[in-house]
Amino acid sequence: xxxxxxxxxxxxxxxxxxxxxxxxxxxxxxxxxxxxxxxxxxxxxxxxxxxxxxxxxxxxxxxxxxxxxxxxxxxxxxxxxxxxxxxxxxxxxxxxxxxxxxxxxxxxxxxxxxxxxxxxxxxxxxxxxxxxxxxxxxxxxxxxxxxxxxxxxxxxxxxxxxxxxxxxxxxxxx
Length: 174
Prior knowledge:
The chain is an alpha+beta fold. The protein is 30% helix and 26% strand.
């Protein structure tokens, strides 16, 4: 008799736990940035104009805290200046640019998006402007402290690739 009471209590407890946990909504898994819809024709043209303009600035020297082509650029001064020429306002500080716009998956970056680099999200070290997203990698234009404004494939760079943290769309937010 004692054995059957204990067995019944155990069965009731098991049944209650199944009911409680099966009725609890499942947590949504973290999926990262949402899929990015393709840009409109006018946005695509704007993105290409931004990239064309940025590429014209290749060869400009690096200058710490630099924000103008006549004196030189640092990385965030470069992206801020270029986007500003098209009435797109972003901070001249890379740590702030890393929070502007909307995050997007690296596989879906488009010309004019910003790539954020650093050792971790609390240590933002660099930003760059996307030129092109090719099967062989992401091409950017950016101001580096050793070479000034250059364009290169960051996906194949042993220096830049491990530092990529995320991408931000600061154009489509307008």
